[in-house]
């Protein structure tokens, strides 16, 4: 999963920003932070979260954008916020009251004091979770049955939190006990419960549409009134692994509706995973865009135009 490094966390009290804001042609809207995928602006008391067409792999932004990616991520995230509204409140104020330059790929949202933990739920064994399991027999301290293979379904979804590493560094898995140390027992339990509730709701709705949600990462933060709120993006192809149910087969790599296709291309290109990254071939760009479009249409039932 790639998440844009939790940009709203950079704006929490005491958090880091990308340097002083720069005021330009947008008038009173001020750039606060530019991340690998998203940019964050301030507009009075609100934030404007803008998704770009940029794509990153191995923490490096590639020079070739994926057309419509920002609009697709924004539209899918808004759809999911609606599906989850009865489970957990979210930071969305409006998807229309945004600068015209950002129309279709921006959300006006509340400021949040983000929790210092990446909240991840897994229903299948893959990615970094599988690597950790093969080394320890557990993921984030959660013991799992022996003999699991790539893409094995887990006995039940598990909460596998990780650190929020500074820009340029990698997140590291942590145990639930370490989450308790960071935020206290009560908040840690709420983070786990909300994360698993979001995953289960997302997996159920996606399964009805022929899609498996292997795992997902969510961002949670405290609103000014003390409410724990869902922020950033949710259940998009950048924060989740989506697999078509009809071709699912454990023991092998699955077809994935996300940037895994680009990651696989980058791995096989001979690139050393250090900047500068190479240009992405046109056929890889088109195939990646098609996957983002396909999963949007299958999940929402809406035709992308």
What does this entry show, briefly?
This protein has 305 residues and is α+β, with helices and mostly antiparallel strands.
Structural summary, described in words:
The protein is an alpha+beta fold. It has 6 helices and 16 strands. A hairpin with a 2-residue loop joins β5 and β6 (60-61). α1 (69-83) runs parallel beside α6 and α3 (176-183) crosses α4 (185-207). The longest helix has 23 residues, at 185-207. It is globular, with a radius of gyration of 19 Å.
Helix content: 25-40%
Secondary structure category: alpha+beta
Rg over CA atoms, rounded to whole Å, is 19 Å
Return the domain count.
Answer: 2
Distance between the termini: 26 Å
- One letter per element, helices H and strands E, the order comes to EEEEEEHEEEEHEEEHHEEEHH
Write the layout of secondary structure elements.
Blueprint: E1 22-23, E2 30-34, E3 38-43, E4 46-51, E5 56-57, E6 60-61, H1 69-83, E7 92-94, E8 106-109, E9 113-114, E10 119-124, H2 127-136, E11 138-139, E12 142-143, E13 153-159, H3 176-183, H4 185-207, E14 211-222, E15 228-231, E16 240-244, H5 260-268, H6 282-300
Antiparallel strand pairs: 1-2, 2-3, 3-4, 4-8, 5-6, 7-8, 9-14, 10-13, 10-14, 11-12, 14-15, 14-16
Helix pairs in contact: 1-6, 3-4
Main traits of this protein?
6-stranded antiparallel sheet; alpha+beta; 305 residues; 2 domains; Phosphorylase Kinase, domain 1; 16 strands; disordered N terminus
